[in-house]
Amino acid sequence: MSHQIVHARLLSASAPLFPELEAALRRLGPLELPRRNDLPFPDYLCRAISGQQISVKAAQSIWGRVEASAGARPLLDHFCPENTDTLRACGLSGAKTRTIVTIAETHRSVGLDTEALKAMSITQRTERLTEIWGVGQWTADMMNIFYFGEQDVWPDGDVAARKTLERLTSKRRKTVRTAAMFKPYRSWLAYYMWAHVDAPPD
Asked: Is residue 116 within 8 Å of 135, Cβ to Cβ?
């Protein structure tokens, strides 16, 4: 689906009820929804977990140390309980270390094969991911949107997306209900909300 077509659909869905939202979408777009699937999925998920709730610069620096600590060993083999102290020394928190080790162990036992996950529905994939200790709904939503390219995920647990949509529409109306008006392009709606937060005001 071309990003120009999606942009036009978002505008037409917002125009009748939400003039502020329509104006924001018009000012921002059309935007391209990026894909970040340059690594096998388990590796990407581990890297994403390591970078959560810290700055991009800090995340890059920590992940660089994690990769260096593995030496020539494949990363997922390196992520095992006996290397917990090594991973903590790279700057990972205890919870992130445990999550990354659990992701690697899940991949070794159950499998987190990229193609198998791609073949699942959003609901099935979300269930598989959130069964992993330390992987919550928000992380699953981000994986669905950016790694698997799902176009219709509304990440209601994302404070920036939710609050921005509220501000541009109505605080009295549940954002899940508002976002439902933008099916099947709710991932794009979220992406526009993040872009709006980052865009300088006029």
From this structure: no
* DSSP H/E element including 79: none
pLDDT tens digits along 58-75: 999 999 999 999 999 999
The residue whose two tokens read 């099916």 is: 183
Residue 105: both structure tokens together: 């162990």
pTM for this entry: 0.92
For residue range 149-201, what is the model confidence (pLDDT) as tens digits? 999 999 999 999 999 999 999 988 899 999 999 999 999 999 999 999 887 66
Find out whether 148 and 125 touch, Cβ atoms under 8 Å.
yes
CA within 13 Å, CB half, 197: 15
User: Alpha helix locations (H) across the chain?
Assistant: 3-14, 19-28, 41-50, 56-70, 75-78, 84-89, 94-109, 114-118, 122-130, 137-142, 159-168, 175-180, 186-198
Contacts of 22 (CB under 8 A, 6+ apart): 11, 14, 15
